[in-house]
Amino acid sequence: MFGKKKDRPLIDKEQLELIKTAQKRIKQKKSLYIHFVLFLIGSVAMIVASLVIGVGETLKPFGIDWFVYAIIAWLLIFLYHAFNVYFTHKFLGDTWEQEQLNKLVEKQKTRIAKLQQQVDKEHPLPTEKKTPITKTTSKKSEITLIVAAGENDAIGKNNQLIWHLSDDLKRFKKLTNGHHIIMGRKTFESFPKPLPNRIHIVISRQENYQVPSGVILVNNLEDAFDAAKSDKQPFVIGGGEIYKQAMPFADKIELTRVHENFEADTSFPKIDSNIWKETSNTYHAKDKNHQYDFSFITYLRK
Ligand SMILES: NC(=O)c1ccc[n+]([C@@H]2O[C@H](COP(=O)([O-])OP(=O)(O)OC[C@H]3O[C@@H](n4cnc5c(N)ncnc54)[C@H](OP(=O)(O)O)[C@@H]3O)[C@@H](O)[C@H]2O)c1
């Protein structure tokens, strides 16, 4: 509000052009006027020089005094000058050329627009799925990503989890119980069978991919969110591809951070601390049932 005031030009570009053209025209007319005065003085001087002083008295081609030829020649030059000022520069100068060019461009633009209208009429584009995915698709829901990731964000290898942490599985079960769980086709295939008491939404580009009865198949992320819109908290449960696409639309992340670096072929996207705020963090040390230390961390979108 109190920022530095920007200098604004007092006249715009178009006005500046008009002023420049006017200055040029004034100069041209002024030089024509000076030429006219010189022509008058020069003519009188030549007449006086010849008739009074006697310069070139004997020079009379075809019986006509030399100054008559000189004055006629000068007059022709003057007329040519006047023609340039009042016709060539006025009608065929740079400004005129630019105007003609602009007119041509405008004509072409109108023609192209007409052709475009004709093409649109004859071959209309399909209107379905034009709307981009927006976070408002199912805004009443709190979209939650649930994931277990190593320190290096590793989440899986050869379409399997890399660790077995029973408390993490229990937490997953408790949080997702009774909810819609959205997953990529590969993650779905990594399960021996669908998980009980959860509505599975599987995303695949394959139109005729076969899923067991009760499992919902969709062909894109937007449809997955739509299929889960009756749920107040649908969970996106992976894998890497789906997390990456769903993260911009998520409101919450339930992360199990496994405190180890793992070799993996799938990873979780970086959690940007400018976007996400950590709201809870519970540490769990390794024990006889858990091979690694880990922490349950909750993030909310800022
Ligand atoms: N640590 C964890 O918490 C955790 C959780 C889940 C999974 N994982 C691990 O993650 C790995 C699997 O992840 P991933 O990235 O390989 O696969 P994924 O995300 O589970 O599934 C990828 C598949 O989803 C479909 N897909 C992706 N984007 C799509 C879109 N925009 N529209 C339609 N279909 C789309 C495609 O199926 P099509 O074949 O039909 O094209 C694609 O091949 C496994 O190792 C798994 O164990 C780890």
Task: Describe the overall structure.
This protein is α/β, with parallel strands linked by helices and 302 residues long. The protein folds into two domains: 14-92; 135-301, Dihydrofolate Reductase, subunit A. It is 42% helix and 18% strand. It contains seven helices and ten strands. The protein has helices spanning 13-53, 66-92, 94-122, 166-176, 185-189, 221-227, 240-246; strands at 144-150, 154-156, 180-184, 199-203, 216-218, 235-238, 252-258, 266-267, 276-284, 294-301. The strands form two sheets. It has an eight-stranded mixed β-sheet with strand order 5-4-3-6-1-7-10-9, sandwiched between helices. The protein has a two-stranded antiparallel ribbon with strand order 2-8. Helix 1 (13-53) runs antiparallel to helix 2 (66-92) and helix 2 packs parallel to helix 3 (94-122). The two termini are 25 Å apart. NADP nicotinamide-adenine-dinucleotide phosphate is lined by residues 147-148, 155-156, 159-161, 183-187, 190, 203-206, 209, 219-221, 237-242, 245, 266.
